[in-house]
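Sequence only, no structure available. Ideas?
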Amino acid sequence: MSGNIRGRKNWTRSLTVAVIIAICAVVIGCMVKGKTNKTDRLYFKNTAGAVLFDHGAHGQLADSCVTCHHNIKTENEAGSCRECHPGVQASETKTLACITCHDDSYTSDMMEHEEYLEIEDHSCLGCHTPISVSSAYHKNCSDCHLKNSPEKFTTANGELLCAACHLR
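Reply:
I predicted one. Tokens follow.
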């Protein structure tokens, strides 16, 4: 035996206390929700190749949120594009013919565009068929990319460079 029983008891007690403290620290550490790294990067999956979109960087470049989000609900909450834009466009018709709702005597020049929206039960979707979400992204994104950074988003002959956004 070690000969010093009293010293061994203190050593064993100290080791036991240290192990208990370590176990408690691990358990508490697992229970406490850690701070997650919030990112402004979004990953859009699609058939043309996924798009990694840095919302924070784009937000700094735009004049306002409405530049991209035309359907803002509140100052801090933009609605989902898919609320109006379907995943797949059913037809290529973008605007309904006036005759769909009105008789033959009606012509579109009878009112200004803003006056239509003042009439109860009239909305944009009453006349305008929304384009697909893919088409909406391409229209918003491509127009801005071609205007602001054509060297990054076009080929040498001026065609849109899909691989600039779509990962393969």
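The longest strand covers residues 41-44.
Hope that gets you unstuck.
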